[in-house]
């Protein structure tokens, strides 16, 4: 607005004289509509500012994207061990409680010699902490859906 309100256009009408119209034109420029700048065809400072604006906007948006992805990765990495332990416990429970394994004749000889108990050693404090963390993650996930 400061640059173009006092500069006379090469052709057409100056749309940057009022504050409201200047804000509207700036919003349209953000949406890649440069039609409000068409009256100034020979203003090289305006061309430099347009290029600088486009590049800086692209860099800022890429930085925001990188920050979002980095934050998601940190949260996933923080919860990875808890998720792994819960999945391992579910697999162990499924193996121990599956009645179909004993009905398959091909596996009967191997199952007689195999141990039916799989032990995962962990302190009760860690198990309680993992279970609490897992429940919180489930609630947060359901709230985001």
Automatic annotation (TrEMBL):
InterPro entries: TRPV. It comes from the Eukaryota. The keyword Transmembrane applies. GO terms for cellular component: plasma membrane. The chain crosses the membrane at residues 44-69. One of its GO terms (biological process) is calcium ion import across plasma membrane. GO terms for molecular function: monoatomic ion channel activity. Keywords: Membrane, Repeat, Transmembrane, Transmembrane helix. This is Ion transport domain-containing protein. It comes from Rhizophagus irregularis.
């Amino acid at each position: 607005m400061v640059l173009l309100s006092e500069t006379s256009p090469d052709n057409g009408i100056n749309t940057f004289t009022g504050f409201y119209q200047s804000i509207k034109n700036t919003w349209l420029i953000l949406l890649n509509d440069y039609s409000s700048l068409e009256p100034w065809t020979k203003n090289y400072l305006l061309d430099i500012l347009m290029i600088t604006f486009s590049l800086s906007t692209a860099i800022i948006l890429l930085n925001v994207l990188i920050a979002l992805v980095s934050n998601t990765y940190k949260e996933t990495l923080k919860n990875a061990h808890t998720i792994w332990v819960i999945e391992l416990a579910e697999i162990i429970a499924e193996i121990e409680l599956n009645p179909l394994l004993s009905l398959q004749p091909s596996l009967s000889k191997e199952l007689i010699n195999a141990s039916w108990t799989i032990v995962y050693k962990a302190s009760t404090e860690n198990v309680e902490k993992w279970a609490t963390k897992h429940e919180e993650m489930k609630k947060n996930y359901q709230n985001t859906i």
